[in-house]
Amino acid sequence: MSDPLDALEKSISTLRRAIRDASAAGDTERAGELRAQLRRAERAWDALLDADEPAPAPPRPTPEAAPAARGAQLPAREHVHRALMLLGTPAAPKLIVGVHEAFFPGELSASKLSSLRRDEERSYRSSPGARPYYLPPALAHDLLTPVRALVTISTWTLEQRIIGPHSPRVDFLTGAIRIAEAVHTAAQSAGSGPSPEALRLLWRFAVNIPDAMPKSASGHDSALDPEQVIEAAQAELDVHADADRAARAEASRRARKSLSDDQQLFGAPPQGVTHLRARA
Asked: What angle do CA 65, 106, 179 make, to 5 degrees?
């Protein structure tokens, strides 16, 4: 399974390289924004590390019960954060819940995400930067308004949090690859292998990707080959990735010029749409 801490460490390394490149190019505005993202990513890393430390347990717990108990004690936003870090893409509440059920202990319902999204913006506006990360909505590439059906993480780059014309398919394929990698890792581990929920989740991705299903598939989750899913998803991803990256980069440039720091997280207000179009 993809470790959220590992994913954050990769993001931190990527941000540090990008800061060096921006500084070398004399782009101080870009370097400053990247430094702010780096600070948020580092705070998120610290928070995840603290969350993974064993909490005080009841007398004589069983080894199997301890991880599940710790997972159950985490707040809903931590569950959401872990699921999103595994996916690596903006996601709808239903998918977030599905990823959580497939790979993590504890309970998470879609209803909790509705109030959570409102709480995240309220918390940020009352005390910006007080939390190591926030869970803002994705941003539409054209109007830079919030796409409230999709949840992201504030420590991700602005490009990663923007949804362009090709982004839904690109994010779907990226998520399929990450889920297949997690299933493959679980299958190779010394434990009991991937959960039935993980196999069903991978199946739902695979049936919508050309050549991802085995020709002899009989409708059972166990017939899936994670490596075949990865190969098929990557082949299609290569077709769309460049166009999607360009659209997101262009929207990100407009957002940095037009939006305040909080709007870059939570989107432009509806009354600002006409103004943003004019400036674009």
From this structure: 105
